[in-house]
Amino acid sequence: AQKVTQAQTEISVVEKEDVTLDCVYETRDTTYYLFWYKQPPSGELVFLIRRNSFDEQNEISGRYSWNFQKSTSSFNFTITASQVVDSAVYFCALSLAGLREGGSEKLVFGKGTKLTVNP
Amino acid sequence: DVKVTQSSRYLVKRTGEKVFLECVQDMDHENMFWYRQDPGLGLRLIYFSYDVKMKEKGDIPEGYSVSREKKERFSLILESASTNQTSMYLCASSLNSYGYTFGSGTRLTVV
User: What does the pLDDT average to over B69-82?
Assistant: First the structure.
């Protein structure tokens, strides 16, 4: 069975601090996808990034960066120079490659990390 | 862009009522999902569907059923609503494991 663990329930930082959100996953499959979503107070899930299991390159997008390490089954998310608008709940998620043409495995979520950025 | 529309943003129902939560997607996706979100528990999968008239139980199907008569619509049914079903419900659709699109959510309160 697949599992995603986000050990940090809540994190509080002051604006401009860097913050890293941890994500550890479990799966026996060799082909899978990892995701990060942001959920602001409005409630919508905002897609941030997707990574497949064969691509361990780190990615940077503006103030956001992601560190994928298969050796430790981790997919950590760092926000550099945090801003108040970054305050949200962040979810890490895992899906397996579809088993049928056009098929799709379910997306398994971690419990989320609530990030509060104070001015 | 794919759009997933959930019919209600907020819903208040009485204990024992039959409740329908509707979800419609406009991009011909085969796969649709219903999740429930509760504080400290993250998103948990209730039911999902790979095709019309097909459904599979997720991790917490008890107290729920689903209906998928048309490809674009996936309904979640609470046969007899109870207070412990007060929650945020999120619908999603996908073409494959590569990308999922979520609706805005329905915040259901059962009184």
Answer: 96
